[in-house]
Amino acid sequence: MQGKPVVSLVVPFYNEGATIEMFFDAITSAIDNIDAVEFEIVCIDDGSKDDTLARLLAVSRSDSRVRVIELSRNFGKEAALTAGLDAAIGDAVIPMDADLQDPPELLVQMIDRWRQGADVVLARRTDRHGDSMAKRGTANLFYRIHNRVSHVEIPSNVGDFRLMNRASVDALKRLPERQRFMKGMFAWIGFRTEVVDYMRPARASGTSKFTGWKLWNFALEGFTSFSSVPLRIWTYIGLCGTLLTLSYLAFIVIRTIIYGIDVPGYASLLVSILFLGSLQLLSIGILGEYIGRIYMESKQRPLYVVRQTYGDNHES
Ligand code: UDP
Ligand code: MG
């Protein structure tokens, strides 16, 4: 008990067997140089199907700072992170990716800023050459639209890599929602926030666990968790449609009065029916998105299930 503050690193692992050795080499050499604080490393095995768990356990046997939480299946990164945040006991908590895309060298700076009084220290990537053009483009688009539409501004080019002090972690834990859009939730809690910049490297090995479809769903989560604009927009579209239809009606009546009845065209009729029909389907779809979310929330299921934890009082 030297009374040093404790910093928890929270790392989700999903099929990262090939990266683990590299990850711990990099991490330990970075944190061994930081004397001002103690570290604990909370590793969450998010239902990996490879040898991730076995390798994590091997590391935790030789390094008492490493704790392992095994989830009962793959719950996804957001849930894995939540499990880690719940288990972390540090005075500050830093979520990190296992693929070394969050450079451990940055820890020194982040911890310094925290000790100088920041509550939250964001790591912002100045360039994303590690990511593909398409991913960068869609990410930019997402932030632009999201921040237009939602009340909570998500800082762009900031991921989950950040330092949070105990108060902000506790605030985060009080957000009860099941559908977790961490980026938005991190932004929602506020606190005195500072930023450090870094270059985002490419993945150390393996491939991204996020496919295009997963990312699309992720973005949808973001919009619907933090904004009801997609829902409200239909009121306005409906209003415009009604006004247009009314003026068209007036036009037809006047034309009939002046020119008499002529053979009406099916084309315009069909077009307007189809147009309104598809508009309705779309808005029903959007309603469905929100109702689905209400349904998920109402079940009040736990966010994750822990199969076993290792490391605190290890058998050794
Ligand atoms: N991850 C996880 N569960 C999942 C998907 C990913 O715990 O279902 C972890 C993964 O092991 C990594 C982090 O989340 O530590 C980030 O994943 P990845 O590098 O694939 O995402 P990207 O950097 O492409 O956004
Ligand atoms: Mg990555």
Automatic annotation (TrEMBL):
**Transmembrane segments annotated in the record for this chain:** 233-254, 266-291
Any coiled-coil regions, as ranges: none
InterPro entries assigned to the protein according to its UniProt record, in alphabetical order: Glyco_trans_2-like, Glycosyltransferase_2, Nucleotide-diphossugar_trans
Chief site of localization: membrane
Report domain Glycosyltransferase 2-like positions: 8-170
| Record membrane topology | Multi-pass membrane protein
Keyword set, alphabetical order: Glycosyltransferase, Membrane, Transferase, Transmembrane, Transmembrane helix
Q: Where in the cell?
A: Membrane
- Show the PANTHER family listed in the entry: PROPHAGE BACTOPRENOL GLUCOSYL TRANSFERASE HOMOLOG (PTHR48090:SF1), UNDECAPRENYL-PHOSPHATE 4-DEOXY-4-FORMAMIDO-L-ARABINOSE TRANSFERASE-RELATED (PTHR48090)
Name this polypeptide is given? Glycosyltransferase
What organism is the protein native to? Rhodanobacter caeni
